[in-house]
Every structure is written in C-alpha cells, then in structure tokens.
Write a structure and sequence with these properties.
The complex is a heterodimer of chains A (211) and B (539). In chain A, α1 runs antiparallel to α5, α2 packs antiparallel against α3 and α2 packs antiparallel against α6. Chain A is mainly alpha-helical. Chain A has one domain: Four Helix Bundle (Hemerythrin (Met), subunit A) (Up-down Bundle), CATH 1.20.120.80. Chain A is 79% helix and 0% strand. The longest helix of chain B has 35 residues. In chain B, the strands form two sheets. A two-stranded antiparallel sheet of chain B has the order 1-4. A two-stranded antiparallel sheet of chain B has the order 2-3. With 539 residues, chain B is an all-alpha fold. Chain B has one domain: Cytochrome C Oxidase, Chain A, CATH 1.20.210. In chain B, 56% of the residues are buried. Chain B is globular, with a radius of gyration of 23 Å. Chain B starts with 15 loop residues before the first helix and ends with a strand. The chains are: A mainly alpha (211), B mainly alpha (539).
C-alpha cells in the first residue's frame, strides 16, 4: 500500500496531499471542541466553587506534572525533527527521531501512571477510593475533572504512540517515502496532543499555587 | 477508457459485498437511504402510538410510564437517526460530489466507515429502546437521567455517542471535498446553493457534535460511577448540563433545516425557470445561520434559572438568527415573481416547505420573546413550533429533494399524479396535526403528559386525525417509488430541465460520475427563454 498511488478522485498528488492536510485540520478542530467542552465545564466550577476548588487543585503533584510537561514538549521537538529530516529525504534520521518521540510519549504515560498511583494512595480517586471525609465534596468534583481530562489526554497519547511506532516501522521498511502527507499528518496530531497538555497543565496543576 | 454506455453505478458490480464494502459515494448514499427509511418508520410508529394514546384524556393504550418511553423513543430516533443524518448523508452523499464535478468524496473509505458508525449507533440505541426503553425524553436532563431514570439509559446514550462519529466524519468529508475537489471553473460563487448549505451544515457537524460527545461522556461517567459532575446532590450544577446539551442541540436544529433550505433553493429556480433571486444573499445567509446558530442555545433555558442578563442576550441573538432565515424566504418568493412556474411534485413539496417553515419561523419569534416564552415553555406551543420546523420544514425538504433527484438516482420516473397527491396530502395532514397544538399549548396543555383535562380533547382528536392523514402522505411514496423502480419509464439525463452538473451526466450516473471531468463555464440557475443553460461547458 504505497501512499504515492493517487486516489481515483484526485487529479494530482498535490491535490490529494492538500485534501489530507485539510482533513486533519478539520479533525483537530473537532478535537478542540471536544476538549474545549470539558475545559469550559471545568472553568465553570472553578469560578463557581472558588477557593475550595482551587484548594483541591493544590493536592495534585506539581513536580510530576512539570516533569511531564518537559517530557512532552521534548517529544514534540523530536517529532518536528522527524518531519523535517523526513522531508529532507533522509531515511535513518526520521526513524530515530520518531523512536525518540514514541519513547518520550511512553515516558509521559509512565510518569502519569505513577502520579495516579500516588493519587490512589492518598484516596483521591472518585468512584474508587475517594475519601470524602478527608477531602470534601468539592475536591471530589475537581478530581473527577482531573481524571477525565488527564485520562482522555493519555488515551489520545497512547493512540499517538501507536501511530508513531507504526510510522517509524513503515519509513524504516521504505513503505512510506517523501512526497506524501502521512508523516506531516502524524506530526500535526502529535503536536495537537501536546497543545492539549499545554492547556491542561496550568489549569490543573498551577491553579492552586498562584500565591 | 470509456465505459460501455449502459454501465451505471448500480450494475457496474453485483453481489452483497459490492454494496457492504463499496466506497462509491452513490452506493453509500443508498445504504444511508435504507437506514434512514428504517429509522423514519420506527420513529413514525412511535409517533402513531403517541397520537393514538392522546385521543382520550385518560390512559388509552398503556400506563403513563409506557407513554414516557414512547415519546422518548420517538424523539431520540427522529432526532439522531433520521433528521440529523437525513439529507446530508443521502442526497448530500449522492449529489454533492456530482454538483461540483468530482468523481467521489475526498475520503471514500471514511465515508463508508461513517455509515457503519451510523448503523451501529442506531442499532445499539434501538436495542436499548426495545429492551425496555427509557423515560427521560430525548434531552436526558440532569439529575433525573443519572439518578432516577430507569431502563437502558447507558446503552441508548452510548449508541448516540457512536453515531456522533458518523456525523463528524461526514461533515469533515464534505468540507474537504468542497474545498479541494471542485471541477475546473467551479468557483465558490458558481457552487449550487445546496453545496453551500451542506457546507454550512458540515461546519456545525464537526464543531457541535464533539461537544455533545463530551456531554454524553460526562453523563455516562456520572450515571455509571456515581461521581458528581452535574447532579446537585453531589455538588454539581444541573444547569451546566443544559448549557452543554443545548450548545449542541440548538445548532443541531440548523443541521436539520439548512440542508432542506439548500434543496428548496435548488428546486425553486428550476420550476420557476429563473435564476435564484439574490444568490449571494442566500449563500451568506446559510453561513450566517450556521454561525449565529451557535450563540442562541440559552433560549432553551429562559425558565431554568439562567441569569436574566444572559436570557436578554440570548433573546436578542435568537431574533438575530431569524433574519437570515427570513431573507431566504423572501428570496425564494422573489424568485417566483414573473417565473414560468411548473407545479411538479418537487415544487409542491417546496411550496409546502416555504409555507410551513414560515409559520414555524414566525412562532419561533414568539418563543424568542422572554415574556411569551415564560408563558408557553414546555407546552404544546413549543411542540407545534419545532414540528413546523423539523417536520414541516426538514421532512418536507427531504421529500422535495427525494422527488427532485429520484430520476437521477434511480434512472426512473415516478407517477407524477400520485406524487403530487402525496405532497398535498402531507401538507394538509401536517397542518391538521400540528396547528391545533399551537392552540392547545396557548391554552396551557403541557408537553410530555399522557393525561389531560377533558376540555382539551377536541384539539387532540383533531391532531390525531391529522396524523392519520399525514401517515398516508408519508407512506404513499413507498408504493409509487417501488412501482417506479419496477415499472417506471426511463428517465433522461435531465428530465426537469435543470442547470446543475449532476444533470449533465446520465441517469443513473456511471460509476465515475462523468465520462470526462466537466469544465464549468457559468453560475447555476441560468435560463434563456425557459431553456436551461448548463453549468458544464464544451471543452
């Protein structure tokens, strides 16, 4: 399945490439509204429940969150390098950069999971072991949002890691060659997942720590 | 390279696999037609039972609980599995690529995938409704839906969530197709209005549906895990649910009506033998409706405890969104002026649309006004209003388009006499069904009640009588369309004398739509002494 083959509905490779790119942007617009709805609901409670809600935010593990931000930003840099070297015609370099991207993505998930483990030990997981007497009902609402947001983000990241791993293999075996749009599209998706985190990080981790 | 002259998309390949694994937009459109028709009749059966139930003031067919499940089923099936996908996935899928001179949509496999999402979601939801149903109404208001409602709510909501992928992928496909696959010479202002309005619809599909998806996920989380997100007993805010729900569900009304407006804009010029009056106004009104439609959701919550200032803003914006709709009605009417009007079946449905949509739109202005809305909220006035828009508008538009493009889709003509009869029957049946409901609502009859005071009975009996006529009007096409496929005479490439690209290829079209990619030389809807000036020019 070479990506150079043009779909019969297209006249030129360029037309097909532009269509795929626009399709990915339209998909990302959908994703923005998907996460946007959750963030809007979160902000509603943040304003409505005020100090108690912000106090709950201070129970998050800001050191791990910050480390994860660094990890994810670095992974995006690797992805950018992968796209650039791939389009410059190199074959080995993009595979290495993509491998680094996927590994950093995995590191993010591992750090995230360890953070969830700490949350579990502190009885912060709603519906599982949330300690209502210790933390209060408002904190429970905060942590419902926290797990919804970070969980959905991690799910997107896992999908991204799978795609990046597939892409690295495909490029390594010469099944995907410069001229198509696949690599660039995977890059767009990866950067989007990164950008979601850029919004989640201050909203979740820094809310309770602004002095 | 030329296909044999009798090869069409219907006979190019045979066998069940050639249908279930097809990537041809025309075949996928027919797959959608099958699904849409199925769900329309499921929803219609529920509607029939509702009208039977309401003939007497007390319980007639079953318990109040049964009645609750009935109207919930009617609402869910009609909204998500008929009205929202109806025109875009059938006529949009079939006609839109042909209108712009393309051989297919941009992503044919994605198109097929979206049909599977639609069918899977529909069957999951139908299963939930048949296993015992749910009693929340189609709106799933909190906290009733998460802590009190019984039945298979989780399954039904999950089915709707799955069908959302179908909406999003369809919208995405149309947007990319319109941007990137237009034939040479097909500039934006040469696009038929149906393409513009489907494009506007697609913008709503990809931007509103994900908000519903998130809202339903949050609802499921609350229902399954009993964690607080919306329910006041867990510290949540039930009004937030309404905000999020209507942020999708009001634009969804425009998902239903914009494609119908596009159909009407195609039909009126053809049967008036005149260019569409104010083409650019009609085009930009579609975009304006899609844009402003995102900002009016709060008018569903005037009595829900929303702040008065928010209500004032939403009231103003709701008046504002009526302006582009009104401009369209004026433009269709002005197109008729001094035209050579032909009263074929598609045109009769289009007239039905214009009249009923106008009544629905004007009563919508009543509801945008705060004091009147407070008086008639949750009464039959609302029920009548939105049925004038969704049934009188969207469904009339669906039938108008179906009758208009039927010869192109099937290559056969249908008996015009019976089609005109069905159109008139549906128009009168519709009015008899729903006009009494305006009066009922104004007198104070609340929606979603099985029992009512005896003095309302006369209006309910009139409404039910109208519904039986309407049911005939909707069932009749099944018969003459079936007859048309079996016995109808062959349709020419352009039986109506229309100007669009889809009419410049054979009926039914060959698999690749056009023997050669057409070159577009002029705007749509051009007539010279009543003779169509085709958009496709000689190369």
């Amino acid at each position: 399945m070479s990506e150079r083959a043009i779909g019969f509905q297209y006249a030129t490779v360029a037309q097909q490439r532009e269509a795929s790119t626009l399709g990915m942007w339209a998909f990302l617009a959908t994703e923005v509204l998907f996460f946007g709805a959750l963030i809007a609901a979160y902000l509603n409670y943040r304003i409505w429940l005020g100090d108690e809600f912000i106090a709950a935010a201070s129970l998050t593990k800001v050191a791990l969150g910050t480390a994860n931000t660094a990890v994810l930003l670095t992974s995006s840099a690797c992805m950018a390098m992968a796209v650039m070297t791939f389009e410059a015609g190199s074959k080995r370099a993009p595979v290495l950069w993509l491998t680094a991207t996927a590994l950093l993505g995995l590191a993010f998930v591992v750090i995230k999971a360890s953070e969830w483990w700490l949350d579990y030990q502190e009885h912060l997981i709603p519906a599982l072991n949330f300690d209502l007497a210790r933390h209060g009902g408002v904190a429970e609402i905060f942590f419902v949002f926290y797990f919804c947001a970070t969980g959905l983000h991690a799910l997107h990241l896992l999908i991204g890691i799978s795609i990046v791993a597939w892409l690295a293999t495909a490029i390594g075996r010469g099944r995907i060659v410069p001229g198509g749009s696949t690599t660039r599209l995977v890059g767009l998706y990866w950067h989007f997942v990164d950008v979601v985190w850029i919004f989640l990080f201050p909203l979740i981790y820094l809310a309770g720590r602004n002095g | 390279m030329h296909a044999p002259h009798d090869e069409t998309y219907l006979n190019a390949r045979v066998g069940i696999r050639s249908w279930l694994l097809t990537t041809d937009h025309k075949r996928i459109a027919l797959l959608y037609f099958a699904g849409i028709t199925f769900f329309f009749f499921i929803g219609g059966i529920a509607a029939t039972l509702i009208r039977l139930e309401l003939i007497t003031p007390g319980p007639t067919l079953g318990s109040p609980d049964f009645y609750n499940r009935l109207f919930t089923m009617h609402g869910i099936v009609m909204v998500w599995f008929f009205l929202i996908p109806s025109i875009p996935t059938t006529m949009g899928n079939f006609i839109l690529p042909m209108m712009i001179g393309a051989r297919d949509l941009a992503f044919p496999r994605l198109n097929l995938l979206s049909w599977y999402f639609y069918i899977a979601g529909g069957l999951i939801t139908i299963a939930a409704l048949l296993l015992g149903g749910i009693d929340t109404g189609w709106t799933f208001y909190e906290p009733y839906s998460t802590f009190y409602a019984t039945g298979y709510l989780i399954l039904a909501v999950f089915g709707i969530f799955v069908s959302g992928f179908s909406s999003i992928l369809t919208g995405l496909n149309f947007i990319v197709t319109v941007h990137k696959l237009r034939a040479p010479g097909m500039t934006w202002y040469r696009l038929p209005v149906f393409v513009w309005s489907t494009y506007a619809t697609s913008l709503i599909l990809i931007l509103a549906t994900p908000v519903l998806a998130m809202t339903l996920l949050m609802l499921l989380a609350e229902r399954v895990l009993h964690v607080g997100l919306f329910s006041p007993q867990l510290g949540g805010d039930p009004i937030l649910f309404q905000h999020m729900f209507w942020f999708y569900s009001h634009p969804a009304v425009y998902i239903m009506i914009l494609p119908s407006m596009g159909v009407i804009s195609e039909i009126v010029p053809v049967f008036a033998r005149k260019p569409l009056f104010g083409y650019k106004f009609v085009v930009w009104c579609s975009i304006a409706i899609a844009a402003i439609g995102f900002l009016v959701w709060g008018h569903h919550m005037f009595v829900a405890g929303q702040s008065l200032y928010a209500s004032l803003a939403f009231s103003f914006l709701s008046y504002l969104v009526a302006v582009p709709s009104a401009i369209k009605v004026f433009n269709w009417t002005a197109t008729l002026h001094e035209g050579w009007i032909r009263f074929d079946a598609p045109m009769l449905y289009a007239f039905g649309f214009i009249g009923l949509f106008t009544i629905g739109g004007l009563t919508g202005l009543f509801l945008a006004a705060l004091p009147i809305d407070v008086h008639v909220t949750d009464t039959y006035f609302i029920v009548a209003h939105f049925h004038y828009i969704m049934v009188g508008g969207a469904v009339m538009g669906f039938f108008a388009g179906l009758h208009y493009w039927w010869p192109k889709i099937t290559g056969r003509l249908y008996p015009d006499y019976w089609a005109r009869f069905a159109a008139i029957l549906a128009f009168f049946g519709f009015n008899l069904t729903f006009f009494p409901q305006f009066i009922l609502g104004y007198l104070g009859m609340p929606r979603r009640y099985q029992s009512y005071p005896p003095e309302f009975q006369i209006w309910h009996v009139l409404s039910s009588a109208g519904a039986s006529i309407l049911a005939f009007g909707y069932a009749l096409p099944l018969f003459y369309f079936a007859w048309s496929i079996l016995r109808g005479s062959r349709a020419s490439a352009n039986p109506w004398g229309a100007t669009g690209l889809e009419w410049s290829t054979r009926s039914p079209p060959p698999p690749e739509n056009f023997a050669a990619t057409p070159t577009v030389v002029r705007a749509p809807y051009q007539y010279d002494q009543g003779k169509p000036c085709m958009q496709a020019g000689d190369v």
